[in-house]
Structure formats: structure tokens, C-alpha cells
Amino acid sequence: MKHHNQYAVSHSGGKQMKQWGRHLKGENSWTMFKVISEFVEGFESMNAIGPCVSIFGSARTSPDHPFYKLALDIARLLTEEGYGIITGGGPGIMEAGNKGASLAGGTSVGLNIDLPFEQGHNQYIDYNKNLSFRYFFVRKVMFVKYAQAFVALPGGFGTMDELFETLTLVQTNKISKVPIILVGSSFWSGLIGWIKEVMLEKEHNISEKDLDLMPITDDPEEVVRIINGYYAEKSSELGPNYEL
Description:
By secondary structure, the chain is α/β, with parallel strands linked by helices. The chain contains 7 helices and 7 strands. The chain has a single domain (31-185, 214-229), classed as Rossmann fold (3-Layer(aba) Sandwich), CATH 3.40.50.450. A 7-stranded parallel β-sheet has the order 4-3-2-1-5-6-7, sandwiched between helices. The chain starts with 30 loop residues before the first helix and ends in a 14-residue tail after the last helix.
């Protein structure tokens, strides 16, 4: 039996190119059926819900933390304005967002991700709006496509991932320009200072107008004013942010 040489010579010029190991799985193409099924289920569920606001934040924030109360109050006020609330479905800030929506009698959506080290979904998600995803990138499409605004509270890598992906999509006109609001000035001010001083002024990697994409506030009512102000004359334009 002939074995593949890990350091086989390339046919294109004599350079040695690395080869896949012997245990490469042959199921990669079939994985697409799992991906498609998640997209189909997500689209069918989210299309029926209506305009929402996505709230991001840490799963580790305890219920007695001020940021938890901020998220709860923001979700409650937005629910009273007629928006549904989308979170990642877990504990912490996500739970606060779903709880605020639930207590106000509004739509409470949870987009859960299967992780080996995180707790399950929180109890404040509507029973028929609790979606579970295997793939982060499918879940992220649902977060972005169906949100009329994004509210980012303090969090970890996942929060940063969602925030900067959304900023990039708006900056590059891949989705509609929508409000992206940072809540918690004590948390965000250092990051915004670095973006302004290093990313913008020193390295010129963004434009000055990009700083306007992410206002910072500590006031739940200000969050509502920003979103309502943006849609004051655009209520007829509410809709998903992009078509795939």
C-alpha cells in the first residue's frame, strides 16, 4: 500500500508543500446539509417574529450587578416601544434582556449556541422562540439580519465579536445602517479612546465618521431615544437588514 508523503514535492516548481494528515475526515461536503437546515429553521422562525433589537453582553454578569439591571431596564423600555428583544439566550446580560422583555409582556427571543462549558438557556425566553444553533456563523446571521438596532453591554470575546462584525457590516454597507449603541461608559471608554487615538489618529485605519457609528450612554432612556430618533421618519422601512 502506497503512503502519502507528508512532505511531498509540489508539481508546480519543486517546493515542498505540506499535506493533510492521515486522519482527514471525508464528511466536509455533507456538513453543508446541517448548515442549510439551521439557516432554514432560523429564517422561518425569525421571519414570523417582526422587528427586534439585539442585546449583547456577558454570560457571567450576576443578577445583582448594575449592568444586569441596565440591560433589564433597556429591554423593558424597548418592549414598551413595540420591539422584540433578541439575545444569545444564556445567563447574565442575555438573561436580563430576555427577562426585561418577558416582564413587559413583549417578544423574547433566544438564539442559543451549543457550547461544552456554558449553561443552558435562561427561563425568560418565549417557549416558541428559543432557537438552538450548532454553528456560530449561522447564529450570527440571525442576530444581525433581524435586528433594527444593536445594544452592546459589557462582555467578553463573544460580545466583541458581535460588535465588531456588526460595525464592519454597517461600515461596508453590507447591511442597512442601524443604531449600534454601547452601554456602560466605564467599560467602553478605554476601547473607544484606543480606537480614536491609535486606530484613527495614529494609524489612519478608519475614517473619523466611523466613530459616529457607536454612541456611548449609561441611560436606558437615551438608548430608546436614539433608536426612536433614528426611526422617527422610517417606520415604513422596517425590515430585515439584508438579503442573502
